[in-house]
Amino acid sequence: MAMFPALMNDTMFSDLFDDPFFEGWRQTDNGGAMSAAMANGMMCTDVKETKDGYDVDIDMPGFKKEDINLELSNGYLTVSARRDGSHEDKGEDGKWLRRERYAGSCSRSFYVGEDMKESDIHASYKNGTLCLQVPKMDAKPQVEAKHQIAIEG
Fold this sequence. Notes:
Belongs to the small heat shock protein (HSP20) family. InterPro entries: A-crystallin/Hsp20_dom (IPR002068), HSP20-like_chaperone (IPR008978), Small_HSP (IPR031107). This is Hsp20/alpha crystallin family protein. It comes from Bifidobacterium vespertilionis. By secondary structure, this protein is mainly β. 12% of the residues are buried. The protein has one helix spanning 36-39, and strands at residues 6-7, 10-11, 45-49, 53-59, 68-73, 76-83, 90-91, 94-95, 104-111, 122-126, 129-135. The protein is built from one helix and eleven strands, in the order ββαβββββββββ. It has a single domain (8-84, 101-135), classed as Sandwich (Immunoglobulin-like). The model is unreliable at 1-9 and 26-34 (pLDDT under 50). Helices cover 3% and strands 35% of the residues. The strands form four sheets. The protein has a four-stranded antiparallel β-sheet with strand order 3-4-11-10, with no helix packed on it. A three-stranded antiparallel β-sheet has the order 5-6-9, with no helix packed on it. Strands 1-2 form a two-stranded antiparallel ribbon. A hairpin with a 2-residue loop joins β10 and β11.
């Protein structure tokens, strides 16, 4: 997938992302291919595991805090942002010859667990980087089903 480093089609560090936190991390908003926003350097994400959780830093240059939305639903934390651009052919001082700045929306989703609450996640935005602190959830012990063995005789 596009979000993980690869060399000669051999994905490196693939077992590093086996933690349930990274479930769905490889998915992008258009079915796996790198989105135009990510190709432009937006929403590039670093995830660091700490003793108590995960620090997630997401590059979102040019967005205002008000343009960014965080939503927690069904165990998925979705980060989305929208930036509107004028689509007029003329500016106040003349005609646009070239427009390269991104206008539109982009989003990323991270699986954080069904038991995560909005109040558990802390977010800040400074200098074009959205910083999230996501706690580790205590692993629920799996109860092994008991199997009865019939006694003959």
